[in-house]
């Protein structure tokens, strides 16, 4: 999946996780579950057949930077409380961390434990696109990201 999908759906999952916590849950507990929901959303999304970026290196870095900037602008707001923006951010961070681990391994530190961690996290990553009856195109991934961002903004406004 593209970064904007992982980020926006991670933010949405982080907010949705709050509905299952008790009213007296601590802020730390809320942040933990927002992050965890983001990670789970990443694993679920990657289990679906989808297109990957056809680029690498600096071009990929620039695309990722642009996507991150756009999603941050769409889901974070100065009107939100610090806690709400933190929950959204922790959900996004959880949604991104599995791919961040792989990027760190491929581009910064080729430590074997990073590779092993990435393999564990991406164990359910859909591998055989040819056998899938449906593959999430880039357009479908962008639409999913927009829908997730709308959900986050609607939850922020309420």
Structure in words:
71% of the residues lie in helices and 0% in strands. It is mainly α. The chain has one domain (3-157). Helix 1 (3-18) runs parallel beside helix 3 (57-75). The longest helix has 26 residues, at 82-107. The model has no long low-confidence stretch (mean pLDDT 89).
Set down the secondary structure blueprint.
Layout: H1 3-18, H2 27-47, H3 57-75, H4 82-107, H5 112-121, H6 138-157
Helix pairs in contact: 1-2, 1-3, 1-4, 1-6, 2-4, 4-5
List keywords for this structure.
mainly alpha; 158 residues
Structural category is mainly alpha
How far apart lie the N and C ends?
29 Å
**Tally of DSSP β-strands:** 0
Number of domains: 1
Largest sheet: none
């Amino acid at each position: 999946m593209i970064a904007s999908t992982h980020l926006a759906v991670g933010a949405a999952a982080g907010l949705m996780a709050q509905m299952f916590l008790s009213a007296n849950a601590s802020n730390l507990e809320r942040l933990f579950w927002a992050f965890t929901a983001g990670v789970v959303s990443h694993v679920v999304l990657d289990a679906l057949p989808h297109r990957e970026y056809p680029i690498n290196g600096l071009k990929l870095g620039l695309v990722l930077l642009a996507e991150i900037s756009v999603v941050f602008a769409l889901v974070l707001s100065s009107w939100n409380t610090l806690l709400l923006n933190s929950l959204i951010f922790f959900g996004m961070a959880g949604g991104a961390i599995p791919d961040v681990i792989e990027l760190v391994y491929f581009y910064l530190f080729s430590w074997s434990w990073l590779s092993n961690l990435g393999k564990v996290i991406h164990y359910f990553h859909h591998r055989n696109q040819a056998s899938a009856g449906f593959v999430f195109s880039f357009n479908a991934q962008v639409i999913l990201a927009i829908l997730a961002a709308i959900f986050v903004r609607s939850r922020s406004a309420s």
